[in-house]
Specification:
- The chain has 616 residues and is of the alpha/beta class.
- The protein has three domains: 192 residues, 4-Layer Sandwich (Glutamine Phosphoribosylpyrophosphate, subunit 1, domain 1); 230 residues, HUPs (Rossmann fold); 79 residues, no CATH class.
- 42% of the residues lie in helices and 14% in strands.
- It has 27 helices and 18 strands.
- The N terminus is likely disordered.
Length: 616
């Protein structure tokens, strides 16, 4: 892996040598980039490349290029020679790369559409820095960047999604499906992947769409199984991970191979709540029971302290974790997978936006397309099945044309303050106002005018890569998400939006595609699993740690400016109430504030990483 083999050079100062008249690129360690013996890199004359990840269409590319090699790095160099800067658009896979062209005095960074291999960069004057690991980047930049308060505000307001910013000013991350070119002291960026422009797919009926979905998803799973002798899956009680697990099990059964399926379950009994079930174990077990080659492993919550997870992952990613309650079981599943000699786990993290999309904004999309007959029929079906209310459907259609102030007024009248910024975030009001966020309401942004644009907002989430990379470094487990595969994304965006909620049934496409491959009760289940449902009971055991941390956070000026500490103190619960009694927003809001506050406190007192990391 590039991140290991090339750690000594991946964050080196790479820029134009002001004393060199020929304008060639240089690295501080010498006149050329280092290439270790096992590095997945290649060097040919004045070209060189470092590649991390998987390329799925190497054979096809080699044929198109007339190349005899099957080495992915060498093929990418050949592709660059033939197709120039446009070559990344022809690559299928999950990857990042750094290519240098000495003849053009150019560094080219590339990030595939996937999110497993993040890439960070910064520029200071004519000096350019890049790294696969943010820690290495900061350690080698030779100056201390300031905390990015604008990004902190957007992170707390949940409006940071898709941003290339980090928690440090002037330090950025590559957006999935993009390239960055550094030459003549300037940075030029280009997004080459535009799945929202995929032409609509017109098939005869629902069955053909279901077959097409299963075909493209099978190929994505097959690509990720290739080269792994022992593989597992993260199996929840929902449609996405159940679908991935079932299709992988079916595929592996033909090869007489087994599949470990790991399910996180509460340690303590918690009653189900409206729209959710709190124990995903029984539903997951029903999936595993359908496939004799699946070994089902239950992983109980509570193996790790929430503060320990904040510290471990905060130091590894150099950013706070967004949903701390989930890292306990996520980390434990990966550890148990590693104990069973696995190196990868199949997941369905992006399924809500692809294979099991519910059809959100379907009516608005149909309106913008002028398909009024289909819109009317779908709205009637939704009303008949009570999957949508008339008022909600009307708001979806009309909200893009309603002024923001009127929209907020209507939201407040119909939903109260539930969607206002201060009901789902502990951001301090003055801090929110300073960054133009005081009027933010969750779900009010209408620039995502249809279902495609809405989903693309999340497909380009580069911050997810930091978490995936941290898990791999800490546990040795790579999370493989076939539901985020480029071809799966493009297929799902090409499917007419009404097919995802056909007959008024949310997530209709995946339900139809998995007939006979999932238990009927799960396949038709309308509720969703509630992860970490017993988090309150576990958090109550950490009362002393929470009180000590809160006292420390209050002494940090930035924390006091960022968080509403008075409200946070009033929220602190010690009654061990289950999540159901406090609402689905309560625990993410409180733990997210602790995660950020602890991160900023440790950043200031230099306990987040060794003092030698930042050298001014």
């Amino acid at each position: 892996m590039w991140g290991v083999v090339c750690a000594q050079i991946e964050a080196e100062h790479i820029g134009m040598d002001g004393n060199a008249r020929d304008g060639r690129l240089r690295a501080l360690d010498g006149n050329r980039f280092l290439l270790a013996g096992q590095s997945p890199g290649a060097e040919t004359g004045d070209l060189g490349i470092l590649l991390d990840g998987w390329i799925f269409n190497t054979a096809k590319l080699a044929h198109q290029l007339g190349a005899e090699t099957q080495n992915a790095a060498e093929i990418l160099l050949c592709a660059y020679r033939k197709w120039g800067l446009d070559f990344p658009s022809l690559i299928e896979g999950d990857f990042s790369f750094a290519l240098w062209d000495c003849g053009q005095a150019r560094i080219l960074l590339g990030h595939g559409p996937g999110r497993n291999f993040p890439l960070f960069y910064a520029q200071r004057g004519e000096s350019f820095f890049f790294a696969r690991d943010l820690r290495h980047l900061l350690a080698n930049m030779r100056f201390s960047p300031r905390t990015n308060e604008s990004y902190i505000a957007r992170w707390l307001a949940l409006t940071h999604t898709g941003s290339e910013d980090t928690f440090f000013e002037g330090v950025f991350r590559m957006i999935p499906g993009s390239t960055l070119r550094f030459e003549q002291g300037r940075i030029t960026q280009d997004v080459y992947w535009h799945p929202e422009k995929t032409p609509p797919l017109h098939l005869r009926d629902s069955r053909e769409y279901a077959d097409g979905l299963r075909e493209v998803l099978n190929q994505a799973i097959r690509n990720r199984l290739s080269g792994h002798s022992a593989v597992g899956s993260m199996l929840s009680g929902g449609l996405d991970s159940s679908t991935v697990t079932a299709l992988a099990a079916e595929m592996l059964a033909h090869e007489d191979r087994r599949l470990y399926a790991f399910t996180a379950v509460p340690e303590h009994s918690v009653n189900d709540v409206s729209g959710h079930f709190c124990d995903e174990g029984p539903a997951a077990a029903s999936v595993a029971a359908m496939w004799p080659n699946v070994d089902h492993v239950l992983v109980r919550h509570g193996a790790h302290s929430v503060f320990a997870m904040m510290d471990l992952f905060g130091a590894e990613m150099l950013e706070p974790i967004f949903n701390p309650a989930n890292y306990d079981w996520l980390y434990e599943i990966c550890l148990q997978a590693r104990q069973r000699q696995l190196d990868s786990l199949l997941v369905g993290d992006s399924g809500n936006l692809t294979i099991s999309y519910s059809g959100q904004l379907a009516l608005r999309s149909l309106a913008f397309e002028g398909r009024w007959k289909t819109l009317t029929e779908l709205a009637c079906d939704m009303h008949r099945l009570e999957s949508r209310r008339c008022l909600g459907m009307a708001y979806e259609l009309l909200s893009p044309f309603i002024p923001p102030t009127t929209r907020r007024f209507l939201l407040k009248r119909t939903r109260g303050d539930a969607n206002s910024l201060y009901q789902y975030s502990l951001i301090r009001r003055e801090f929110a106002r300073d960054h133009g966020l005081d009027a933010t309401w969750f779900g009010q942004d209408t620039k995502y005018r249809d279902s495609r644009l809405l989903r693309m907002r999340f497909f380009r989430r580069p911050e997810v890569g930091s978490s995936l990379d941290a898990i791999q470094r800490l546990t040795g487990i790579t999370r493989l998400d076939p539901t985020a595969d480029r071809r799966v994304v493009e297929f799902c965006l090409s499917v007419p939006v009404e097919r995802f909620c056909e007959k008024g049934v949310p997530r209709f496409l995946i339900r139809n595609a998995m007939v006979g491959r999932l238990p009927e009760k799960l396949r038709t289940e309308r509720r969703r699993g509630l992860q970490a449902a017993d988090v309150a009971i576990h958090f109550a055991r950490e009362k002393e740690e929470a009180l000590v941390e809160f006292a420390r956070m209050k002494k940090v000026d930035l924390v006091a400016r960022v968080l509403d500490l008075d409200k946070m103190e009033r929220m602190l619960p010690w009654s061990s109430d289950p999540i159901a009694t406090r609402g689905a927003v309560y625990w993410p809001m409180l733990l997210r504030a602790f995660s950020l506050g602890r991160f900023l406190r440790r950043l200031e007192d230099r306990t987040l990483f060794p003092p030698s990391v930042f050298q001014k």
